[in-house]
Amino acid sequence: MQQGISQEALNRADKPQSATNYLRNSGGGEASISQPAEPVLRGAMVKLTDFGSDDVGYLSIPDQEPKGGVVLVPGIWGLNQGIKFLADHFSKDGYVALAVDLFNGIVPKDSSSAADLRRFVREESALNVIAAAVRFLHESPRFHTTKVGVVGWDIGGEYTLEAAITVKGINAVVIYYGEVNLEKRKLSKLRVPVCYFYAEKDQTVSKEKIIHFVNALEEEKKPLSFYSFDAQHGFADPASTNYDPTTAEAAWNISINFLEKEFNTIKKETGFLDRIIHSKE
């Protein structure tokens, strides 16, 4: 894990926390996210109408008292079986998981149709459905969650970063190889911890933009956990031809550990502002 990374750091051979090193040093015991050919799903579709959106999402609830809530924002392959399967895995890890739909129920059949759908997604609409999902997890009477994270892949990662700045009620975000085209001035408004997974062989996300993004957050002293993997764009999406199960599992376990750490930190820091104020008196 590296907080703040320079051009030299991105280019050097000993990249921060490779997938192999993470799996070797993690001590075992992590959950497997290998997806079966026909996954048996445990969740159900829900409407977000009462929370500010006409869209729907896939909801998966844990058997025990929730550790918190997680909104899943899929990439170009939409709300497919793979994203629903991941939502179920979040719920098995103790989180109320809600996967949103950016494409109005359409699940692309091939990369060409996925690319076409990507061009028609409007930022305002995407952020509205994420905001509705966050509200759902905070306000639904079906369960009690005080902490909500957002996890996004590809284009969903782009909107996850934007949501981290503009949507209320988010406590932490995880971004898988999403574009980071935000100006430093806008990044300065970021108020939540970010975990970012960079694919070193990614041809769609500019390395220069990643360097600018990471250095901007470092200069603004924003909390960032940055992981670089020897993988292609889409390494964590079973629908992608670049899917890499070993790297995907490493990133998954990092995501779970990151959210658990940040949620526990939030809980422990209740009254933190009061302590700061009194310490200055």
Characterize the structure shown:
- The chain has an 8-stranded mixed beta sheet, sandwiched between helices.
- It is built from 10 helices and 8 strands.
- With 281 residues, it is α/β, with parallel strands linked by helices.
- It has helices at 7-11, 19-25, 81-92, 111-120, 123-139, 155-166, 184-187, 207-219, 245-268, 272-279, and strands spanning 44-47, 56-60, 68-73, 95-100, 148-153, 172-176, 194-199, 224-229.
- α2 (19-25) crosses α9 and α5 crosses α6 (155-166).
Coarse structural class: alpha/beta
**What is the percentage of strand-forming residues?**
15-25%
Count of individual helical segments: 10
Order of helices and strands: HHEEEHEHHEHEHEHEHH
Computed over alpha carbons, the radius of gyration is 18 Å
Number of DSSP-assigned strands: 8
Euclidean distance between termini CA atoms:
36 Å
Please give the share of residues in helix. 25-40%
Oligomer: single chain
Mean pLDDT: 83
Strands of the largest sheet, in order across it? 1-2-4-3-5-6-7-8
- Described by the principal axes of the CA atoms, the overall outline is globular
Largest sheet: 8 strands, mixed
Parts with pLDDT < 50 across at least 5 consecutive residues = 1-29, 270-281
Question: Can you describe this structure in just a few lines?
Answer:
The chain has 281 residues and is an alpha/beta fold. 40% of the residues lie in helices and 16% in strands. Strand 1 (44-47) and strand 2 form a beta hairpin.
